[in-house]
Write a structure and sequence with these properties.
The chain is α/β, with parallel strands linked by helices and 296 residues long. It has helices spanning 3-34, 48-53, 55-65, 80-89, 108-118, 130-133, 138-155, 177-184, 196-201, 206-212, 255-259, 262-265, 280-293; strands at 40-43, 69-72, 93-98, 122-125, 159-163, 190-195, 219-222, 224-225, 245-246, 269-272. Helix content is 46%, strand content 14%. β2 (69-72), α4 and β3 form a beta-alpha-beta unit.
Length: 296
């Protein structure tokens, strides 16, 4: 073969290799850029004081910031129909609601009825009060209660879940309560809304749980902290008062590392929260802006 032919063949082979490499790079570049949060949500507990005075106006301002999903922590005297109407008016999806532990028994049928009216997808128990946690069998009792609620919730076309603080990651009789809940709760009946801030504050690693219990975490609370607090098992604890919370993206939590495992965890809803912001709207705006531009 002539030198000219060899050069032509070499050129074509090289060009094909470069083209393939370019396409591969572009593909993975596109894939990386495609990892983002499509609909950022917010726990309305963050703006609870404002909602007391102006329920509809506060929700409208939340939507104006750019939030697409909301999680409730009380309806401030509004009916299910009224809550649904204000969400529809502002283009918000009422994904979830927090319901206290003492509402999971006789009151639970009413909770389910109201939740269906609003369009809630997840009914979440936000915590177990300290007095009840003193019972030696509390976590077994809680798991049994959660399973019952989960069965009733699933029958109604919704999902039950539990939201953690940090006490679930402190050993009780050599066992972590969070581990016990995951083991004793039926995976199809009870999901977890992992508060990524509180597990971090307790020294836990979300990724450990994502690996051990894939698909169990459809909701996560997204809030940040500047320093790791000194934590205790009991007491009022004043969540948010005694912890140096900050807006998402301005603290120590590595969000990209966590969200890179979102598919394994089963995360569907990313819910911003700040327990005690000095300026609630400014706080949720900063957190939204960070998450809306975050790519991984």
């Amino acid at each position: 073969m002539s030198l000219q032919g060899m050069n032509r063949r070499t050129f074509l082979e090289t060009a094909a290799t470069v083209t393939a490499a370019t396409l591969l790079t572009s593909r993975f570049g596109w894939a990386a850029a495609d990892h983002k949060i499509d609909k950022v949500g917010v726990q309305l507990y963050t703006v609870r004081d404002l909602m007391k005075d102006d329920f509809d106006g506060t929700i409208a301002k939340v939507a104006k910031i750019g939030y697409k999903e909301v999680e409730f922590a009380g309806y401030f005297g509004r009916t299910g129909q009224q809550v649904r109407a204000v969400c529809d008016k502002n283009g918000l999806d009422p994904v979830s609601t927090h319901v206290q532990y003492d509402e999971l028994d006789d009151k639970f049928p009413s909770v389910i009825e109201t939740s269906k009216t609003i369009g809630i997808k997840y009914i979440v128990c936000p915590w177990i009060p300290e007095e009840l946690r003193k019972s030696p069998d509390i976590w077994k009792q809680a798991a049994e209660k959660f399973n019952r609620c989960g069965a009733a919730t699933n029958k109604a076309g919704m999902q039950f879940a539990y939201h953690n603080h940090w006490f679930e990651f402190l050993p009780v009789d050599g066992k972590l309560p969070y581990d016990e809940l995951l083991k004793q709760c039926d995976a199809s009946l009870v999901k977890m809304e992992m508060d990524l801030c509180w597990i971090t504050a307790a020294g836990g690693d979300p990724l450990t749980y994502f690996n051990a219990y894939p698909g169990r975490f459809p909701l996560v609370h997204v809030k940040d902290l500047k320093t790791l607090p000194k934590i205790t098992a009991g007491g009022a604890q004043n969540y948010g008062d005694t912890v140096d919370l900050t807006e998402v993206g301005s603290g120590l939590i590595d969000w990209k590392k966590i969200f890179a495992q979102a598919d394994k965890a089963g995360i569907k809803h990313y819910i911003v929260e700040h327990d005690h912001p000095k300026q609630p709207f400014e706080s949720i705006t900063k957190s939204y802006e960070y998450l809306n531009t975050l790519r991984w």
